[in-house]
Amino acid sequence: MIMKHNNTLIQAIRGMNDVLPADIQFWQHIESLWRQICRQYHYEEIRTPIVEHTQLFSRTVGEQTDIVTKEMYTFEDRNGDSLSLRPEGTAGCVRACIEHGLTYHNIQRLWYLGAMFRHERPQKGRYRQFYQIGVETYGLHSPAAEIELILLNARFLKALGLEDLQLEINTIGSAESRQRYQKVLTQYLNQHQHRLDADSKRRLKRGHPLRILDSKNIELAELIKHAPVLSDYLSEDSSRHFDTVCQLLKDASIPYKINPHLVRGLDYYNDTVFEWKTQSLGAQGTVSAGGRYDDLVSMLGGQPTAAVGFALGLERLVLMLKNKSIDIPSVDLFLMPAETKWISNILLLAEKLRDALPYLSIHTHLSDGKLKRQFKHADKSNARFALIIGQAEQNSHTISIKNLRETVPQQTLTMPALIEFLHTQFKRKTDHEN
Ligand code: ATP
Ligand code: MG
Question: Atom 22 of ligand 1 has which residue's CA nearest to it?
Answer without folding.
Answer: 313
